[in-house]
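ok here's Carnitine O-palmitoyltransferase 1, muscle isoform, seq below lol
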Amino acid sequence: MAEAHQAVAFQFTVTPDGIDLQLSREVLKHIYLSGVTSWKKRAIRFKNGVLTGVYPASPSSWLIVVIAIMSTMYARIDPSRVLFKMLVFIQLNCKVIFVMLLLIYAGLKKKSAILSGKKIVMLTSYLESVRPLLDDEQYKQMETVANDFKKDPAPKFQKHLKLKSWWATNYVSDWWEEYIYLRGRDPIMVNSNFYTMDLLYVIPTHRQAARAGNVVHAMLQYRRKLERGELTPLRALGIVPMCSFQYERMFNTTRIPGIETDFVQHLKDRKHLVVYHRGRFFKVWLYYGGRHLWPSELELQFQRILDDKSEPQPGELKLPSLTAGNRVPWARARLKYFTEGINQASLEAIETAAFFLTLDDEAHGYDPENIRSLDLYAKSLLHGKCYDRWFDKSFTLIVYKNGKIGVNTEHSWADSPIIGHMWEYVLATDCFQLGYTAEGHCKGDINKSLATPTRLQWDIPKACQEIIESSYMIAKGIANDVDFHGCLFNEFGKGLIKKCRTSPDAFIQLALQLAHYRDKGEFCLTYESSMTRMFREGRTETVRSCTCESTAFVRAMEDESTTNEQRLALFKKAADKHQNMYRLAMTGAGIDRHLFCLYIVSKVMGIDSPFLKQVLSEPWRLSTSQTPQQQLNLIDIQKFPKYVGAGGGFGPVADDGYGVSYIIVGENLITFHISSKFSSPETDSFRFGQNIRQAMLDIRALFNLKEKM
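and the structure came out like this:
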């Protein structure tokens, strides 16, 4: 996703104190700190496991066993039978952790095995991935540079990286978070943050406060399940449980700006949220009498904010622009103007809130009568007015005046499937569990004795207002340059693709390759995001979708002398290749994260590597990502076909490239979210959407499958 932009644009600011050709002291310091962080997390997880009954069952369950045995002695009942039943109870509690321990052990062994033998495989795979993009002379030069790297200094770098893999929980993720996200000094709005849309066709109520009430209550229910460990873990292929570490920082989390690097602040249970409406900030308590506020009570609170006619204080209207502009001015302004008095108190209320809510004064959503309605909806979620989302919060919930909703998510703490899991739960709970009255209000009684929301107070001097305005102008320039197009493809979907006996993702990726070639007349380095959550604290790996096989297929499609039978054979070969690369990426055998970590080691050691420098500077002119549907049991779309999600998207990655996110919904719908830049004469998001549509249809024609499934 947006990480592809950061993966090329990041700047390295660490320098070594000295170099040891055997083991660099600076690298060892980085490895040591990674390991300390990993072991702290393990200790916390173990403590939480004991307290919550994961390992080896909760203290309360052991107390029950003791009481039961004592009771049998008093009542003269055979204690063995009771003990057997109690042990079965405890065994059920322990079974999950036992399986997970085996998987973790196997995963760690597998990780070390992959890393130890990865150097040669990585270089071979890399050269294979760039072959279709280079002519013979360029490829020969790259081959020479890669082979030189393999001889020296690759063994030095690999030695340090192998050591980190033994010591730290995950040899990639902490460096990925730090150097790809937190050290970036450019604006995170558009460049890093991403968005998620509401249900495509349905608005369950047009009352803004009511929709906000139900959705916020559903989010609080999800947070409670998350904190209690009641969410069913997702499993790859329905068997292997995936790491849930990223979920831990979903709520109560804020990215805090710094001069050289930001950091992620995560707190325990927060009992309030902050609401932004027409330039004013309000603090709303989420609890009353030790319980969550009911949806009807939340609706009342939000309606009070909507009815408030007060004006913004000086500098308050565009204050969130500080989070939308460059990071250094925001960090300096925070230190100078927000570390004491009412400014500190108000900023603390925002940064310690469960999440951020914007009650937007615009109306958005999909309108079948307006072909650009999805485009405007996407741009609003991605950047809004550049001053009405707090882009540093883990996520900002946006509720429009017509009842439509969406989410803008900060990327450093997690990847899109994590927020997507919560969003699926919220939409289903909102529509099918909480519901609304016939008038569109939240169900339940109204407690009018609730304390009204509190206005946050500010004292923003002129000098700070100038910084705010400067950040706003920078953000406005970025936002105005975003060319977005939402493309609903409903000619066919997963149902027909299954008949082709190929992976839907591979089908779409090959269509994207064909569409891009028709759009620009050339091939490009292509990024597809794949999850690596089968490993502890895994995040993502890159699938390099432009291959020798895919380019051969595309050329055949454009060659009139090639028969459909030949094209079909090349398609199947390219699809098989793509599926195999995706499997390798998911199982830790990708190449890009390993190359990234080798580059980090090289920079810390102060050893220049022409090979790594070239690899890490290559632009991804086509960056793609699939939004997965993870909880198909929540909404029966066969029974409720209008209750389908619209997915989400991200900003353009390269100045002259495209960003494409897509979601496969049910059997007959694929939604594409396409971004590029108006400033590039080479790109046009609407045109690219039309090329994707035609490419999908042309590939279908190869199979002679015309019926709509």
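fwiw The first strand starts at residue 194 and ends at 197. kinda neat tbh
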